């Protein structure tokens, strides 16, 4: 019996009519495997995954393949976005087997859930140098029955390795160490196309932020240009949806031309921040358009009636990857007319032969940017084609709400808004925040995934860390005390329920939740920044906002725990290093007095990489140890005080003075985490 008809995940519901007797992940499935003494086949994927669809059509929809699966295994289907903890454990097991990894993830487990072998996509028939799926199933069953010692040997080796926590090498880090890590990173940057060398090409936002932070603190023009080059090439390439806005997951080539067409909320959240920074740095329309395009796509296609944001858009439509997004030259002519079509095709690389399987992916890799009048003309054409594209059969929308991904997007909207002069984005962020805080929280703890009123609870470390960071961003932008209180609540949950003292880091799962084979404790960034790095940044920002002794101590202690881990693999821990940079050189700006709106807006328009902001209300007071306490209580004229550590500037009362004072404090401020 297929048990997925009652699931809430859109990905699981895609498989509810399979002839496979699927179970959802849970103790019931493991109990059934023990009762039958059968191994478990666990298949992990997500709704926007192209190769997941391929394997489903080839094998899971085939009655003959399903019959073998049902006879030999207890079969479990998992949405990796709904259960990132389960995905992490079994993907880590696959890596230990020497496989590169990817989705769909196909793992074989003992009835106790212990992994002993696996792979990713298996074709129905042997091809791509891979064995046929049915042959794999029969061989795993034979080994399980006839050679159990081999199964147990693999199981024990994998389980022992999974149980090893990531070890740090101790020590401290300073700005000179961060500079040295960037020099190592610079050797890996593609000097022609930006990003890391080779293909496939992923944006890697935490690494790009790490590079840009270095450029800002060092004045290294070459580093800044590598950062800007990467964002420029992505914005011109096919990885960007030039008609509808937003970016695909990655490109399969090194030029950012041919994307893997799925669009994920978390990628676009991180890229929104970076494009806002790039626009603030350069004033280039290309970067503004890329950022505003992300938000236009977000509002048009991802904003749900409840106020939060959906998780992803599929890569496929009508059974083909990218069909919704590609064009033929005939399509362009039909919709724009001969003259405009010829012009548009020249700019966006639309040709009769195409650049992707006989069709064309719009891109501007060859043409770059044009004068304003031409850009306006192109904008009209893009609108026409977008309206035409809307009549096509759309890719599937995964409309579940994830706390962590929403937290990333909420923070991005709030941070980008003042850099681009788009205050309405803060209201958009507040609406999403209100839904997550209201509908996905119980007794101060967050759930992870919501859909149709059903909540997966409790949530994971990144849910709390990303929403804590989002709350602080909203507090900086609005001065509403409820956001600060929420941030402290989620901080306390992370410290009490997720922090593993012996490992010096956060676990993915809260203490006391349903046990997996091991309790996952990853610290490296993946497609999303790791919870440890996000939490560290949030703690630093909270300490800079409040200057409260408790907050300062907690930020220092968490960073002291994490830097030893980050030292061993710096580029895999860029989010931790970014938090460290904020701690070592960031300034806090306190705005006080009457009629402060203009000065307050000016502080928010400063790049968030370097500063934290607090507007002191008339009924608020500073802690006794706050370095600005004496200065903040004198007079009623609007003023800003720029503080670094225990030192604060004299008050400034105008925007030019503020920018000059911040630059001065940033250039002179440096500290070091104590041993």
TrEMBL record:
The keyword Transferase applies. GO terms for biological process: carbohydrate metabolic process. Keywords: Kinase, Transferase. SUPFAM superfamilies: Six-hairpin glycosidases, Thioredoxin-like. Gene3D superfamilies: 1.50.10.20, Glutaredoxin (3.40.30.10). PANTHER family: SPERMATOGENESIS-ASSOCIATED PROTEIN 20. This is Thymidylate kinase.
């Amino acid at each position: 019996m297929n048990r997925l008809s009652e699931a809430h995940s859109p990905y699981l519901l895609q498989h509810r009519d399979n002839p496979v007797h699927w179970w959802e992940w849970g103790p019931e499935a493991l109990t059934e495997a023990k009762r039958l003494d059968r191994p478990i086949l666990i298949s992990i994927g997500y709704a926007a995954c192209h190769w997941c669809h391929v394997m489903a059509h080839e094998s899971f929809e085939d009655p003959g393949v399903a019959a073998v699966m049902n006879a030999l295994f207890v079969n479990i289907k998992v949405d990796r976005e709904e259960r990132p903890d389960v995905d992490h454990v079994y993907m880590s097991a696959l890596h230990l087997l020497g496989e590169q990894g990817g989705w769909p993830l196909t793992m074989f487990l003992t009835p106790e859930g212990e992994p002993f072998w696996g792979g990713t996509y298996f074709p129905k028939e042997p091809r791509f140098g891979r064995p046929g799926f049915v042959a794999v199933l029969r061989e795993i069953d034979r080994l399980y029955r006839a050679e159990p010692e081999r199964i147990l040997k693999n199981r024990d080796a994998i389980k022992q390795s999974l149980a090893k926590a990531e070890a740090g090498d101790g020590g401290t880090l300073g700005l000179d160490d961060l500079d040295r890590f960037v020099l190592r990173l610079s050797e890996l940057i593609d000097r022609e196309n930006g990003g890391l060398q080779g293909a496939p090409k992923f944006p890697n936002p935490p690494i790009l932020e790490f590079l840009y932070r270095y450029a800002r603190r060092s004045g290294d023009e070459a580093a800044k240009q590598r950062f800007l080059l990467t964002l420029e090439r992505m914005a011109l390439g096919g990885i960007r949806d030039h008609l509808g806005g937003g970016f695909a997951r990655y490109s399969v080539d090194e030029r950012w031309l041919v994307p893997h067409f799925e669009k994920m909320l978390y990628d676009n959240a991180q890229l929104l921040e970076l494009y806002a920074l790039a626009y603030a740095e350069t004033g280039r329309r290309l970067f503004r358009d890329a950022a505003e395009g992300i938000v236009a796509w977000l509002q048009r296609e991802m904003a749900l009636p409840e106020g939060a944001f959906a998780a992803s858009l599929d890569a496929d439509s009508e059974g083909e990857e990218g069909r919704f997004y590609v064009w033929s030259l005939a399509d362009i002519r039909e919709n724009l007319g001969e003259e405009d079509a010829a012009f548009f095709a020249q700019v966006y690389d639309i040709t009769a032969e195409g650049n992707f399987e006989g069709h064309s992916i719009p891109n501007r890799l060859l043409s770059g940017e044009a004068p304003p009048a031409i850009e306006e003309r192109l904008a009209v054409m893009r609108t026409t084609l977008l309206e035409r594209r809307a009549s096509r059969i759309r890719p599937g929308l995964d409309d579940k709400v994830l706390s962590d991904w929403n937290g990333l997007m909420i923070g991005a909207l709030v941070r980008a808004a003042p850099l681009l002069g788009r205050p309405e984005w803060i209201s958009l962020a507040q609406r999403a925040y209100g839904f997550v805080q209201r509908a996905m929280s119980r007794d101060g703890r967050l759930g992870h995934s919501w859909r149709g009123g059903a909540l997966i609870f409790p949530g994971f470390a990144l849910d709390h860390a990303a929403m804590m960071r989002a709350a602080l961003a909203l507090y900086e932008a609005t001065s509403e005390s409820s956001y600060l209180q929420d941030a402290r609540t989620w901080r306390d949950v992370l410290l009490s329920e997720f922090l593993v003292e012996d490992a010096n880091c956060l676990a993915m799962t809260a203490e006391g939740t349903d046990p997996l084979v091991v309790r996952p404790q990853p610290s490296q960034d993946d497609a999303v920044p790791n919870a440890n790095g996000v939490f560290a940044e949030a703690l630093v920002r909270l300490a800079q906002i409040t200057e409260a002794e408790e907050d300062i101590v907690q930020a220092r202690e968490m960073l002291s725990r994490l830097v030893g881990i980050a030292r061993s693999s710096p580029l895999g821990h860029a989010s931790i290093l970014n938090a460290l940079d904020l701690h070592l050189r960031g300034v806090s700006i306190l705005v006080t007095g009457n009629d402060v709106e203009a000065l307050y807006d000016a502080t928010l328009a400063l790049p968030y990489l370097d500063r934290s902001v607090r507007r002191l209300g008339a009924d608020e007071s500073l802690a006794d140890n706050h370095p600005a306490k004496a200065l903040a209580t004198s007079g009623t004229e609007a003023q800003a005080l720029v503080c670094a550590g225990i030192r604060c500037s004299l008050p400034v009362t105008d925007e030019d003075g503020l920018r000059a004072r911040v630059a001065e404090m940033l250039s002179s401020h440096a500290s070091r985490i104590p041993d």
